[in-house]
Design brief:
It is built from 10 helices and 10 strands. Helices cover 38% and strands 17% of the residues. It starts with 8 loop residues before the first helix and ends with a strand. β9 and β10 form a beta hairpin.
């Protein structure tokens, strides 16, 4: 790794403790090499040869932007359009067929690079059309939020997107943008993005009809999950729905929701 000394257990534990304090993410021992590989380019950038020196730099007031850069690198996850598409079938075919509400609001609470937000937007555009609806995407990473707003993605991330949606809601890149796609402006205009650290006080973002917290809780310990879910539910309307990953569960985490189907929960009206 360009003369960089291997990360030691002590150095890994320092980063692990720091990312837990900042983002609530619990990193198992086997994430040691992942941490090393994700941070290696920053060591090279500063011409450092040890992770201990980089840890000092991250916490130095001389480099105020580097702490956020480190958080971005250690919290960003790869995603793609129509991931766990059973949720979107359920929304389209069950929840929205007879929707009679006013402005429907959806929050993707850890949206990463934005594919989930725009997938939701496509479903809402298909079912509600020009009726009032909006999607908020939030993430701790400022870098991925910039990517969300640009809305340019590799075509490979749309492998599971229905072809008619690809033609209707995406612009295919040409020349230097070949192999990329751009989300249509009409869809982008209904989506907003905001930097939110779920471990801190949630800003005044209002109430939502649907809340997505997928592939996030796998990184948290039980105590953090309980606190986080309770905090987020204060932004879910009575009768609203919460979606988590099929690999996750809310058993023993909250009693404020009732199970609709695996990984889909509803907040009772009363």
């Amino acid at each position: 790794m360009n003369g960089i000394m291997p990360i030691t257990d002590e150095q890994f534990n320092r980063f692990r403790k720091l990312i837990y304090e900042v983002a609530g993410i619990s990193m198992a021992d086997e994430k040691k090499m992942l941490v090393a590989s994700r941070l290696a380019k920053r060591l090279s950038f500063y011409n450092l040869n040890s992770y201990g020196r980089y840890f000092q730099l991250v916490n130095s007031p001389q480099y105020p932007g580097e702490f956020q850069m480190m958080v971005d690198l250690l919290t960003t996850n790869e995603t793609y359009f129509f991931r766990e598409d059973q949720h979107f079938h359920f929304i389209k075919n069950d929840l929205l067929k007879n929707w009679r509400g006013d402005n429907l609001r959806v929050w993707s609470a850890a949206c990463s690079s934005g594919e989930e937000v725009y997938t939701i937007a496509m479903i809402l555009a298909e079912t509600l059309g020009v009726r009032p609806w909006e999607v908020l995407g939030s993430d701790i990473s400022s870098r991925v939020l910039n990517s969300c707003r640009q809305a340019v993605y590799p075509m490979s991330r749309a492998d599971k997107m229905p072809r008619e949606y690809l033609q209707k809601y995406c612009l295919k890149g040409v020349r230097e943008q070949e192999g990329m796609l751009l989300i249509d402006q009409k869809l982008r205009s209904r989506c907003t993005f905001q930097q939110i650290n779920l471990m801190e006080t949630i800003p005044n973002i209002g109430m939502f009809d649907m809340l997505f917290l997928r592939n996030v809780m796998i990184y948290f310990n039980h105590e953090t999950k309980v606190k986080l879910v309770d905090k987020l539910l204060s932004h879910l309307k009575p009768g609203g729905f919460m979606f988590i990953s099929h690999s996750e569960t809310l058993n023993n985490i909250t009693k404020k929701l009732k199970t609709v189907r695996p990984s889909v929960y509803m907040k009772p009206e009363r």
